[in-house]
Structure formats: structure tokens, C-alpha cells
Amino acid sequence: MKRNIVIAAVTAAALIGGGTVTAVAAGGDSGHAGTADRSANARSAGAEVTAAQAITTALKDTSGTAVSAELDDDEGDTPVWDIDVLGGDGTWHSVRIDPADGTVLGSDTDDDEDDTAEVRAALKGTSVTAAEAAEAAAGQGTVTSVDLDDDGRDQGWEVETRGSGSGERDWVVSAGSGKVTADRDEESDDD
């Protein structure tokens, strides 16, 4: 039954919006979508490659720690995963991943970032990686960005998801436990 709902949702999204409408099939009593549901979410958003997969690919290409990932669809018609990686030597790398097939499209380096010390301090208290934070939040919808909270406000990862009918939502993934909670500051900002 769940499989039929996912197939129907993906088919409807493809027919209605040419594959650009996000279809979310919520399943189970836990409120978390399974792996098949996350894959359907990514496909319906025009991306076969999830945030976690894009981060893993970027880290295979560039050594370091991923501190952010964003499905950037502002430049041109084709979306691109943009993964920021902090290298062990303090060099910042921006790795671009094709969301359709997961290939590395290129990377740039920049060793002149102002917030390197803050990011390193925030990473010291983090046992959850960017990829793990993306996986944890994937049950809430299609993950479109993951960003390390380096100002200490949320003590973890700030994750944005897109879901069918619910628009964009912001979540906080705990740096220690991986627990996902709604970003209360964002909700109060919307009021």
C-alpha cells in the first residue's frame, strides 16, 4: 500500500510539474519516511542524489569536514549541490555535485574565510556529521540545506526541508544525539 502511494505521488508530481513538484509520502506511525520515501522526495524535487549522498561524494573528492550543503537552484535552470568543506589545513573548499547523478562538477578553494575559528570550535562538540544530520531530518521532507550552527544558538545542525503542501520548514538536529526538532526561532520569526 505504502509503495503504491509513493508511486502514485511521484507519478502525479511528474505529470503535474514536470518533476519539479515535491511529493512526500508520509508513512508509519512514527512520522518518519523510509528510504524509499526519501528517494521519491529527492526525485520529485529534481534531484536523484540526496543531501547525505552529495556530502559523502564531496568528502570522497575533497578531504576535510563538511560544514554545509545546499541544493542551489538560483544560478541557471539546473540545480547543483554546493558542499562547503573545511580542510585540515584551514582551507575552505566549495564542491559542486550534480544532483541528478552525483558526479563532481568542480570545486574551488578559499583560505580567507573569517569564521574558521568559530566553525572549528562548533565542530569540537559535534558527534553528528552533516551527512548524518541530513539523514536524520530526511524524515521531515526533502532536505534542501544543512548548515552547522557556528554561533552556538542551536547547538547542532540547521536543516531546511521542503515538503508537499507544507512549503519549506526549518529544523535543528542535535550535535550530540541527532534528535530532530522544529526550529522554534524560525517559527517565531514567521509570525
Question: Would you mind describing this structure in some detail?
Answer:
This protein is globular. It contains 6 helices and 8 strands, in the order H-H-H-E-E-E-E-H-H-E-E-E-E-H. The chain has helices spanning 2-17, 35-44, 51-61, 116-124, 130-137, 184-190; strands at 65-72, 80-86, 92-97, 104-110, 142-148, 156-163, 167-174, 180-182. Mean pLDDT is 75; it is low at 1-45 and 187-191. Helix 1 packs parallel to helix 2 (35-44) and helix 3 packs antiparallel against helix 5 (130-137). 40% of the residues are buried. Strands 4-3-2-1-5-6-7-8 form an 8-stranded antiparallel beta sheet. Helix content is 32%, strand content 28%. It has 191 residues and is α+β, with helices and mostly antiparallel strands.
Output the keywords:
single chain, 191 residues, alpha+beta, 8-stranded antiparallel sheet, 6 helices, 8 strands, disordered C terminus
